[in-house]
Design a protein that fits this description.
single chain; alpha+beta; Nucleoside Triphosphate Pyrophosphohydrolase; Arc Repressor Mutant, subunit A; 2 domains; seven-stranded mixed sheet; two-stranded antiparallel sheet; 5 helices; elongated
Length: about 230
């Protein structure tokens, strides 16, 4: 059998976990503690076992390397460039999730030296094609946020319109008109005024909102166009 007839025998999972806090969108990375990429920051990822589904593998890998668990991971894209991983031919399935950073306490797994959140503007050079996977997923989110509501898992249960605006600005990477953003969002009837205001703030307390879950789910199914 020559090289071109060989069968692909390596399949892996890579996880892109985005979190939002203090007006910054971050990505969860692990520092490799063993192997040829020792000391390098990378996306949480590893091999799929023969006796598990790919969804099970994604959850296991993420939990074992970062301690983040019990979250919904959605398949994003498959990456299979011939030379993306040397010396073997490896295809990886990328999963992504949007989470509230404050809900999770991070702990590196036995093969990781560290685990941490990185501002999306400060992502280091990663091994393999992890930077491309990250950039492709971020581009996907920029498109998605203009056609589906995003924020249910990234924001606290009760949030201000400014926090929502900052989330959109962080994902899109651009400043938005505050007044226009407010009008468009309130027009969708997606937000419910909780009749509460911020507590323990040095500035004028802003109104707190929550998502109307039924409207949110309908918009997820139907989609919409949110022009910025």
């Amino acid at each position: 059998m020559n090289f071109t007839d060989e069968i692909i025998d390596a399949l892996s999972i890579d996880c892109l976990i985005f979190g939002f806090k203090d007006a910054q969108l971050s990505i969860l990375l692990v520092k490799h503690g063993i192997g040829p990429t020792l000391g390098q920051w990378a996306l949480p990822g590893s091999w799929i076992k023969y006796n598990e589904s790919i969804d099970e593998a994604a959850g296991r890998i993420l939990s074992s390397q970062t301690s983040v668990e019990n979250i919904y991971l959605e398949q994003f894209k498959t990456f299979g460039e011939v030379r993306r991983f040397s010396p073997r031919r490896v295809i990886t399935i990328a999963y992504y999730a949007l989470v509230n950073i404050e809900k999770f306490e991070l702990h590196p797994g036995p093969t990781e030296a560290d685990v941490s959140w990185f501002n999306i503007q400060e992502v280091p050079t990663m091994p393999f094609d992890h930077n491309k996977i990250f950039e492709d997923c971020l581009s996907f989110l920029k498109h998605k946020i203009q056609h589906e509501p995003i924020g249910f898992n990234l924001l606290p249960a009760k949030f201000t319109l400014l926090q929502l605006l900052e989330l959109y600005e962080a994902i899109l990477g651009q400043k938005l008109d505050k007044s226009n953003f407010r009008k468009k969002f309130l027009k969708m009837n997606l937000l419910v005024d909780t009749q509460e205001r911020q507590q323990d703030v040095s500035h004028r307390a802003a109104t707190l909102y929550r998502f109307d879950e039924s409207v949110y789910n309908k918009l997820l199914e139907k989609g919409f166009t949110f022009e910025v």
